[in-house]
Amino acid sequence: MSQELVVHLIKETLWISFLIAGPILIVGLVVGLVIGILQSVTQVHEMTLTFIPKIVAVALTLLFLMPWMMQSLLAYTTNLFSLITGLS
Question: pTM for this one?
Fold first, then answer.
């Protein structure tokens, strides 16, 4: 196993993890920001008002993006296994 292959695998692993986690984190960030602004404007600082919308938004994002996530991870895993079998 060459050093270039290891660096490529690490780079590909980090990239796929960013692609998978990015949309979920962005949705949580945007919803939290919107709720925070609404709480500042209305001066209602209830802790459950931030958690419930974030949980619902993240769950809906996961539900909507799950086929794409599974397809991406399956393609990555298949590629990784083909590289492993090609090494021996």
Answer: 0.79
Rounded to 5 degrees, what are φ and ψ at 43? 55, 35
C-alpha distances out from residue 75 to 11, 21, 28, 42, 70, Å: 15, 16, 26, 47, 8
Quick one: tokens of 75? Answer: 């393609």
In this structure, which amino acid lies at residue 5?
L
pLDDT 10s digits, 51-75:
899 999 999 999 999 999 999 999 9
- The half-sphere exposure of 54 on its side-chain side, counting CA atoms within 13 A, is 15
* First CA to last CA distance, the chain: 10
Backbone angles phi, psi at 70, to 5 degrees: -65, -40
Q: Angle at Cα 61 formed by Cα 57 and Cα 67, nearest 5°?
A: 160
Residues 72/8, Cβ–Cβ less than 8 Å: no
Residue 26: what residue type?
I
